[in-house]
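Lab manual, section 2.4: Encoding a predicted structure.

Procedure: take the sequence of the chain (257 residues), apply the prediction step described in section 2.3, and record the output as structure tokens. A sample record is shown.
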Amino acid sequence: MNTMTLWHLTGWEFAALACAALLVGFSKTAVSGANTVSLAIFAAILPARASTGVLLPILIAGDVLAVLTYRRHAHWPTLWRLFPAVAAGVLAGTVFLIWADDGMVRTSIGAILLLMAGVTVWRRRRAAADEGPDSVATRSGRLKARSYGVLGGFTTMVANAGGPVMALYLLSAGFRKLGFLGTSAFFFLIVNVTKVPFSAGLGLIDGTSLLLDAALVLFVVPGALLGKWAVDRINQRLFEQLVIAATVVGGLQLLLR
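Recorded output:
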């Protein structure tokens, strides 16, 4: 795989990757979608395609910590409705990665994230009342779940950027803070583990990338603990604003690189 090893990194480069790993932990237990900043840091220091393979095990470590923290709050009917569409998106993303270059990947994902952020803000301003999680059982709810599921699967496969897409879906479905975090925790643990054989088959994960992961994964734990401390101090409105803001920042970073 075309990536740098731990010994090829400067001290500043490793420190930046360590901060990005810490932010992964924070995003998994506090502000989902914030790890798009981590994605941008990894892509800036490592070769863009290779960076997705290095980042995936770090994301899985964060997912495990998030599941341990919020496992009681997952809404499984929503998860079961999402998984078939997500699987289709992952397969489409795998095909896309076979022939797409880094520029195409960044531009596509950045545009999708900004579009989703705009649609979510528009929908929430129009809504007279919040929808509950059970709204996914309606016809429009099923259509929305499929649409977001395919986009979430596609973006998470090609750039580990599915977090903002699913965050926007859960917000638009009216999930409160703990239900949001519990549902997204199980969702991404299952999806990211499923992605491993696809990423390995594309050459994005190998012994070199895993060695770098071993050095970085230790920083995920303090980030997750910081997120757990912070989430109890963030009210629902601020929580939603932070999720949308992180999505916009991540989308702009991908488009402007």
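Check your result against the sample. Residues 102-126 form the longest helix (25 residues).
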